Amino acid sequence: MATMGLKYCAWAKMKEETKAAPPTYFTGKVIGKAVSTNLTVTNAEAELAADDMIAEYVREFSSANLAMEVDNIDLADQAQLYGAKYENEELQHFADDNAPYGGIGGYQVLLIHGVRKYRSWVFPKAKAAVPDWTGTTKGSSITLGTQPINLKIVSPSYGPWYRVQEFATEAAAQAYVDSKLNVGEWRQINIQVNGTPPEGSTLSSGVVYVPAGEDFALEIAGTPTALYDNGEEKASAAQDGKYTLSTVSADHDIAVIF
Predict the structure, then answer these.
(1) What pTM did the predictor assign?
(2) Please, are residues 33 and 81 in contact by the beta-carbon 8 Å criterion?
(3) For 235, phi and psi rounded to 5 degrees?
(4) 62 CB contacts (<8 Å, ≥6 apart)?
(5) CA–CA dist 72, 9 (Å, integer)
(6) Which ranges constitute the DSSP H helices of the chain?
């Protein structure tokens, strides 16, 4: 596996946490372009010695520290992240600020056996701390700075403390993070191709993710024998080699038959 890149940094303030379901979030947002991440995990360990040997050994997740760098975080977003105050375009930190719990996520770009993949990651429960910062005067060369983020990762009351999933497309990787952190609504288009498409066609089976409310055009490049959309025959709706969905508001299962 080769790591080829790191993208996206989405965060959402936690809305509700129960012992019966994963945490829910207020509307999340992208707070910066990812530069780097470093995860350090702390485990609780215990061992029992008996008969001059280790009879029992326990190792469990305790917490983790996530150190990130992004290109920039707006002052208003910093106030949300750190539980500070933003007033009259000024960020104000007080001694009794208490940062809220929230979820944070992004995705990596990987090359696995010559195939590009996208690995999304989400930490459902994290709390940020105001980072140290340094500055330097302008010299003979230009140095571009970044914005650090330090977060304590803990286990939520329900569900995993760390979620990871791989996808074939970047849109699907972003959709995963967005859906987990309530950043935006995405709709799933599940495409199934039966038979042999015309020569030169790029049509293939797979899942495509579309932002809710946007249009989606399926390139068919030929005349299918039948086309079903959520069980309804729609071959007549295909025009000029395309089947178009306007302002997508729901998931679609599309079957194209040649």
Answers:
(1) 0.77
(2) no
(3) -55, -35
(4) 42, 43, 44
(5) 11
(6) 75-82, 170-180
